[in-house]
From TrEMBL:
Residue stretches making up the Ice-binding protein C-terminal domain: 323-345
Protein name: Ice-binding protein C-terminal domain-containing protein
Signal peptide: 1-27
Domain of life: Bacteria
Coiled-coil residue spans: none
Organism: Desertifilum tharense IPPAS B-1220
Gene3D superfamilies linked to this entry: alpha/beta hydrolase (3.40.50.1820)
InterPro entries on file: AB_hydrolase_fold, Chlorophyllase-like, Ice-binding_C
Keywords: Signal
């Protein structure tokens, strides 16, 4: 893929800096492997608090390791079954997370008074899944007994689920049909990164300020999204009030590049990036963003905010970075350091 002017500039600057330091990009980045870290297992259960059916993906580790992994809640797109996220969720889990993908089946009225029944994510799932995972972590026969860090939560979301996840990072603005009255952002919520979502009115192109407090937000979009619009996602990025924040565009991906298969009925555009490659790309950036902010992983932080844009030819990235860590991240860090609305009105955001 041909690099844009900004990416060419970054690559040239990086190359020149490394040359001046008497080394090369390959030698520096060899210290950090952006690939998955764990083998993953999966099981399906009925969650005890929400009573939702859920698929749970978790890293395989030795019982003697005494490892615990943060919770990551995946909020589904409208009418998309949890099973359709199997490839994506398992790849995110491989970065060191217990990923929960529930089916939230419900009936709701939108502000226009229209009734809808189906798989529709909502804000209260955040608190419910926190309670569900405390219970699951304590069950004697649970495959993840003792494996869950119940004090740390990250959010993923697709389409409508992305809108829910963005809403869950704040308390000031609640949108119809997806929010819970009296919602309070839990202290366990440490970061949110979503795909194909936006936060605003698609008809008037009005995008709402996102008062995310100290919760980092990542937004990923496909350049060929024909259901929403990557521009809407980027405009949402502009409205995130508090960095760190990042916008990642995946070139050649469409609205359903996050799912196991493309959706020929609901998406008019066909992707040019192979489905497996697109899903891996979205999952890798999601997993590393969550590692950066849930696990304070400096190498992941460096990849997301500094080196990844130049290293991954399938993406373009804009960001406002957190403070640069101490120099322990090594020479690579030194080199790169030298970067009342109805559902119809939200249809492009689903």
């Amino acid at each position: 893929m041909k690099l844009g002017t900004r990416k060419q500039s970054l690559a040239m600057t990086l190359g020149a800096t490394l040359l001046a330091l008497g080394t090369n990009l390959t030698a520096c980045t060899a210290r950090f492997n952006s690939n998955s870290l764990f083998e993953v297992n999966r099981y399906t259960t009925t969650l005890s608090v929400s009573e939702d059916s859920a698929d749970i993906y978790f890293p395989i580790v030795s019982p003697s390791a005494n490892a615990q992994f943060p919770i990551v809640l995946m909020l589904q797109g409208a009418f998309v079954d949890k099973a359709d996220y199997a490839n994506y969720a398992s790849q995110v889990a491989s970065y060191g997370f217990v990923v929960v993908v529930p089916n939230r089946l419900r009936t709701t009225l939108n502000p226009a008074g229209e009734e809808a029944t189906g798989l529709i994510a909502e804000q209260q799932q955040v608190h419910e899944v926190l309670s569900d995972m405390v219970a699951e972590n304590a069950k004697i026969n649970s495959p993840i007994k003792g494996l869950v860090d119940t004090q740390s939560l990250g959010l993923l979301g697709h389409s409508l689920g992305a809108l829910v996840a963005i809403s869950a990072t704040q308390e000031e603005l609640c949108l119809p049909a997806i929010c819970t009255a009296g919602y309070v952002k839990p202290p366990e919520l440490k970061a949110s990164i979503t795909y194909a979502g936006a936060f605003g009115d698609s008809q008037t192109q009005t995008f709402f300020p996102i008062q995310n407090g100290d919760t980092p937000i990542g937004l990923i979009a496909g350049s060929l999204d024909g259901v929403g619009s990557p521009n809407n996602t980027q405009q949402t990025y502009n409205q995130v009030q508090n960095p760190p924040k990042v916008f990642i565009q995946v070139e050649g991906a469409n609205h359903y590049s996050i799912t196991n298969e493309d959706n020929l009925e609901r998406e008019p555009n066909r992707p040019t990036l192979e489905q497996a490659v697109a899903t891996e790309t979205i999952a890798r950036w999601s997993g590393l963003f969550l590692r950066a902010h849930l696990l304070n992983d400096r190498d992941a932080l460096d990849y997301v905010y500094h080196t990844g844009d130049a290293l991954d030819s399938n993406v373009s990235v804009i960001s406002q970075k957190p403070p640069i860590p101490e120099p322990s991240a090594g020479l690579t860090l030194l080199a790169v350091g030298v970067m009342g609305v109805g559902w119809r009105r939200y249809r492009n955001f689903y």
